[in-house]
């Protein structure tokens, strides 16, 4: 109803501006007793001049009349008039004085048509956000308005010609829009410029009537050209797509409306104005009123009345208003004519009593009307009642979610004869539930389609989006691709706000007929029940997840205690120090230090995607895999291939891990390592010089990969540092990032410190850097120093 209120208020404001424009611009003056265009063409207004309709006054006579400045002594004026056969006759016309408000009465039908056209334009904009059709009808209203100004004042040639050309070019755009095609906006600017130039020429040469007439004829010719193409294109679409029943009728009505629009230009171009200037003007008004209504009907497409009335509570309001107005008018009629009661003849007494009665009984009356409405359109239909009772019973039945949804889908399809029913939910809802084969469709909660549904609380009708562009076109293609006709929002009743938790998508009726009032009521009730069921299942899933979390915490605690980092015994020539601090209870960073011999040691540092319980289990599993493979004598490259195979076989690309690991050999003075998508290895020599080794290979868990090791020759006093992204991607209170450069500066500054001291110093620096900001990711850092054996 908001769009309807805006339409009425906007149109009323336009009408008031129009009224004041007439009163302000017009002067009380003597003039000829008929209305004519600057070319001399007499229009069909005023029955007393019926014999002159469609004829033209000679320009010489009009110029003489316009040159008269004082009409005080002139009551009549002779004119030479040429009829439609080309014959000229002379007649003496008595002048008349027209007051300011007289024009409003003479052109009332024209002004109403302009007002009605604007109302349609405003409604299209607020209900469909269609700027093109809004502009088309707004321009059409301006054409009619400027035509009135030309006939009354002969001084609005610029606006008249401008709107004529804009209207003709808008017909070009309608060729695309009415067939659901994208509009090439690059043509808009030259069309506006051409219209502006032609209007300027006409206004500057307003005394050259022959030139103005030709300019106007060109505008009519363009209108006829694009209108004809529009008609042919839509007829071709009818033949090609073969729409059925109501859809076919609406397509034909749309073609008919376009023909009505170009009827006047065709008559001017090819039939010298017949019949428009030789018959009563009411034909013109009725024709173009019919054009507006048929265009509106033909473009609004499907379920017109239900979309405006049934999808909102306004039908009950309309009935109540009708009852209140009817009883008031009937009471007045009875008091005045049938049973004149003296005490109630005073209107203020009766109005006070009536107001009191309406206030006292409005709510009970509203409830009664709603009950009657539900009874006649819904409860009286046994098929609908049986269907809703069957679905309502599911609320208390101990069925699984899959079984319940399948039952609802089947019942709805059988009851209202639709092709399908789909439940559209955001991707983060029921994340751990298998929703295959039960007509659920997931959509990204950040997508523009879901944001559109969240921002509107109305039922979306697919066919009403057919002529839209941008988001409306995307939404139309999405719903049409699913064969959906109606999209109902299902709300979360546990929240005070209207939060949409799902969209119930209803397919097209198999018989291609309208949804009846009862069927729409049935669907609305099903949507409410579906919303309650979804909410119950959501609460159930939350409870299950909470119980799983409690169980996982207990399990993870045991795992963490049994598979925690076991510090190796001393390895000759190698010293190390580390920190490992999880963001939550269980770390998703994997750190392992394993001695292989008295001179060899394996160091592994990895990062499983995410952090928390799930990644904690993965870290524990990987620790077990590593130790098992090392016991079997697997090489470093083979170890990476085994971990990669584990991820791919278990998680099929849904989980992945970065890993940097290598073997220190103090006897050979080398560090042999593999980097699978992890951060750079930092080498710091004894003189404090730092070098980054950033060459990496594919992340673990994505594709089958043959990993190859790199070798790094070690010099005495060399330190190596491995770290996770929790170090470099830490943020301060001012959203400053710690970064790799800060880490390198820290290592430079502490180059003389031992590898056992550096991790502790780094932890202190990071704590000071974050300030009061919480740690957002797992932090792991290990430093190793090498001394020749």
Automatic annotation (TrEMBL):
InterPro entries: Bact_Sigma-Reg (IPR052016), PPM-type-like_dom_sf (IPR036457), PPM-type_phosphatase-like_dom (IPR001932). One of its GO terms (molecular function) is phosphatase activity. Residues 571-786 form the PPM-type phosphatase domain. SUPFAM superfamilies: PP2C-like. The keyword tRNA processing does not apply. It comes from the Bacteria. Keywords: Hydrolase, Membrane, Transmembrane, Transmembrane helix. Pfam families: SpoIIE. This is Serine/threonine protein phosphatase. It comes from Leptospira bourretii. The lineage of its organism: Bacteria, Pseudomonadati, Spirochaetota, Spirochaetia, Leptospirales.
């Amino acid at each position: 109803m908001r769009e309807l209120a805006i339409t009425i208020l906007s149109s009323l404001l336009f009408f008031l501006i129009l009224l004041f424009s007439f009163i302000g611009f017009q002067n009380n003056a003597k003039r000829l007793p008929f209305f004519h265009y600057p070319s001399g063409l007499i229009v069909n207004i005023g029955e007393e001049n019926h014999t002159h309709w469609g004829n033209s006054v000679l320009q010489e006579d009009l110029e003489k009349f316009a040159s008269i400045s004082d009409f005080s002594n002139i009551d009549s004026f002779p004119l030479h008039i040429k009829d439609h056969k080309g014959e000229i006759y002379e007649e003496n016309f008595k002048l008349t004085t027209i007051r300011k408000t007289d024009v409003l009465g003479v052109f009332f039908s024209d002004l109403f048509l302009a007002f009605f056209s604007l109302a349609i334009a405003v409604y299209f904009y607020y209900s469909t956000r269609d700027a093109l059709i809004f502009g088309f009808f707004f321009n059409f209203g301006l054409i009619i308005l400027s035509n009135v100004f030309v006939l009354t004042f002969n001084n609005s040639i610029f606006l008249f010609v401008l709107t004529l050309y804009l209207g003709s070019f808008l017909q070009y755009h309608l060729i695309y829009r009415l067939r659901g095609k994208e509009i090439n906006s690059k043509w808009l600017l030259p069309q506006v410029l051409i219209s502006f130039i032609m209007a300027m020429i006409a206004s500057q040469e307003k005394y050259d009537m022959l030139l103005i007439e030709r300019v106007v004829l060109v505008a009519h010719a363009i209108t006829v050209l694009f209108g004809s193409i529009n008609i042919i294109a839509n007829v071709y679409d009818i033949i090609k797509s073969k729409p059925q029943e109501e859809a076919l009728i609406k397509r034909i009505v749309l073609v008919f409306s376009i023909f009505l629009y170009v009827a006047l230009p065709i008559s001017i171009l090819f039939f010298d104005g017949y019949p428009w200037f030789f018959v009563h003007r009411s034909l013109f008004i009725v024709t173009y009123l019919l054009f507006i209504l048929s265009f509106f009907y033909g473009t609004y497409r499907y379920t017109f009345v239900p979309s405006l009335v049934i999808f909102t509570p306004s039908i009950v309001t309309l009935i109540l208003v009708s009852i209140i107005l009817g009883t008031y008018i009937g009471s007045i009629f009875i008091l005045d004519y049938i049973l004149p009661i003296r005490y109630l003849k005073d209107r203020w007494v009766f109005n006070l009593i009536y107001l009191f009665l309406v206030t006292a009984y409005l709510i009970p009356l509203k409830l009664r009307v709603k009950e009657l409405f539900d009874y006649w359109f819904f409860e009286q239909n046994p098929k609908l009642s049986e269907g809703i009772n069957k679905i309502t019973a599911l609320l208390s039945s101990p069925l699984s979610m899959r079984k319940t949804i399948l039952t609802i889908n089947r019942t709805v399809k059988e009851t209202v004869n639709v092709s399908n029913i789909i439940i559209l939910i955001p991707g983060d809802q029921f994340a751990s539930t298998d929703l295959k084969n039960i007509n659920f469709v997931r959509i990204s909660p950040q997508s523009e389609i879901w944001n559109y549904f969240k921002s509107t609380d109305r039922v979306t009708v697919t066919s009403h989006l057919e002529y839209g562009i941008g988001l409306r076109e995307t939404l139309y293609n999405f719903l049409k691709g699913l064969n959906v006709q109606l999209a109902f929002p299902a709300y979360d009743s546990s929240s005070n706000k209207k939060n949409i938790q799902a969209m119930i998508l209803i397919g097209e009726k198999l018989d291609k007929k309208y949804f009846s009032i009862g069927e729409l009521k049935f669907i609305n009730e099903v949507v409410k029940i579906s919303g309650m069921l979804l909410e119950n299942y959501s609460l159930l899933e939350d409870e299950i997840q909470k119980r799983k979390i409690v169980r996982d915490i207990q399990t993870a605690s045991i795992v963490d205690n049994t598979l925690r980092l076991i510090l190796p015994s001393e390895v000759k020539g190698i010293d190390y120090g580390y920190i490992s601090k999880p963001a939550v209870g269980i770390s998703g960073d994997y750190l392992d230090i394993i001695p292989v011999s008295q001179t060899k040691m394996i160091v592994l540092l990895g990062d499983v995607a995410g952090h928390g319980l799930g990644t904690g289990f993965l870290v524990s599993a990987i620790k077990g895999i590593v130790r098992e493979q090392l016991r079997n004598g697997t090489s470093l490259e083979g170890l990476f291939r085994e971990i990669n195979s584990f991820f791919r076989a278990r998680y099929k690309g849904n989980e992945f891990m970065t890993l940097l690991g290598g073997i220190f050999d103090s006897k050979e003075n080398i560090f042999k390592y593999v980097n699978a998508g992890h951060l750079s290895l930092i080498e710091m020599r004894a003189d404090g010089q730092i070098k980054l080794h950033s060459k990496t290979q594919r992340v673990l868990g994505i594709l089958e990969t043959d990993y190859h090791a790199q070798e790094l020759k070690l010099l005495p006093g060399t330190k190596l540092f491995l770290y996770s992204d929790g170090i470099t991607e830490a943020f301060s209170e001012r959203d400053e990032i710690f970064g790799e450069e800060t880490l390198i500066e820290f290592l430079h500054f502490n180059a003389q410190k031992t590898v056992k001291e550096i991790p502790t110093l780094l932890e202190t620096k990071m704590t000071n850097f974050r300030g009061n900001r919480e740690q957002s990711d797992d932090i792991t850092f290990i430093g190793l120093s090498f001394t020749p054996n």
